[in-house]
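Hey Z.,

So I finally got round to the S-adenosyl-L-homocysteine thing we talked about over coffee. Here's the setup:
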Amino acid sequence: MQLLAGQLVTIDGMEFLTSALRVKDRNCLVAGSSDMAIQQALQLCSHGANVTLVGHPVSVPVNGNLVVEPRDFTADDLTGCWLVIAGCDNRDDNNTILQLCNAKQIFCYCPDDPQKSSWHHQSAAANTQEYTDTASPTEDAQDAGLVSLVGAGPGDPELLTLRALRLIQAADAIVYDRLVSEPILALCNPHAEFIYAGKEKANHTLPQDSINHLLTSLARKYSNVVRLKGGDPFIFGRGGEEIETLADQQIPFQVVPGITAASGCAAFAGIPLTHRDHAQSCVFVTGHLRNGEINLNWHQLTDPQQTIVVYMGLTGLDMICESLIHHGHAAHTPAALVQQGTQPQQRVLSSTLEGLPALVAQNNVTAPTLLIIGGVVSLRDKLAWFNPENQYQ
Ligand code: SAH
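And the result:
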C-alpha cells in the first residue's frame, strides 16, 4: 500500500496521522468475533503479532500466532496489550472496550466505529482509495484475504454445513464448479463476484493451474474468497492441489468439509454403505477413464463383504462391471446407479453387475451419477424412503 507516514488522513470526519507499527512479537487483543475482527486478527498475526481473540467465533483458521479464547471479554484482558481491536457485534460492548482502552491509554480500533477509535487499521482487501488516490492494490501475500475451500455437498441445499452457509453468505468472490447446484448458488451473497470454474469431463472450463492461480489473485483483491466445490473438497475434488498453491504463496486458507456424494447418494437411495450382514468395509474409487482405460487395482476390489462406491463411473460403467465379474465378483452382485443424488431429479437404477449396463443403456442417464456395488444395495428394496416430489415434508 502506497501510504506515507506523517500524513493526515480523514476517516469518517476524524483526523488520523499515518505512521507504521511494528507489531511483531507484541501482544494484541481482538475482542469479539465479527468476520472483520477475525480478518484483522489474522492480518496482525501475519505480521508476527501475538494475538488473543476473545469471543465466540464459529470458525477460525489455525494460525500459530493466534490464541482463541471462547468466552466474553473482561477488562483484565487488556493487561499487557499494545493494541486492541473492538470487534464485537454489539455497539455497547464495543463502546465499553473503547472507553476502557482510553482510560488505560491503549490504542483501540473499532471497525464499526472509526470515529471513536484511537487508531485505524484497514483490512488488506478493503478499499484503499479511502486513504489516498494514489493507492494501488497490494501485491503483498502478507496482506492477502482468506480463501475458504468449501464443500457444498451433493446438491440439496439443506445438506450444507452451517459453516459453509455462513461463508458463502459473507463471500466477496466465489469460484464454483459445475457440481454446485442452483439452489446452493442462490444462497450465496448476491453481491459477490461469481466465477465459474467449470469441470466437465472432457471440457475443463478453466485448467487446474489457472484455478490455482485465480485463487491467489482473488485473495490479493478480496478479504473473503470462497472456492466452492461439490461434495467434499478432499474427495476426488483436487482440493489438495488448490490449497497447495495457496500454501506456497503463504495465503491464509481453511478447508470446510462437505457431505461427499457417497454419503449423500447412499442415504437418499436407502443404501447403507456398511451393514453387519453385508459389508464390513467400504471403498471409494474413481472410474475416470484415462486413455480409454480405468486405472484400478481390481485385485483389491474382490472382497464380497466390501461395498464399492465408484465416482465418475458412468462412461466406464460397462468396463467396470465386466472387470469386477472377471476378477471374481458374482454376476448377480447387486449394483445401483444413483443419478443426481439428493436432488429433486434424483433417479436410482438398481440391478446387478451383469444387468446394470443394459438397464442404464435403456434409460436416458445423465451425469452426475454414482455407482454403488455390493450386497448392501439389496437393502434398498426395504429402505428406500426419498420421494423427490414430497422432499420437504
Ligand atoms: N468432491 C466430490 C466428488 C467430485 S468427483 C464429492 O465429494 O462428492 C465428481 C463425481 O462425484 C461425479 O462424477 C459423480 O460420480 C459424483 N457425484 C457428485 N455429486 C453427485 C450427485 N449429486 N449424484 C450422483 N453423483 C454425484
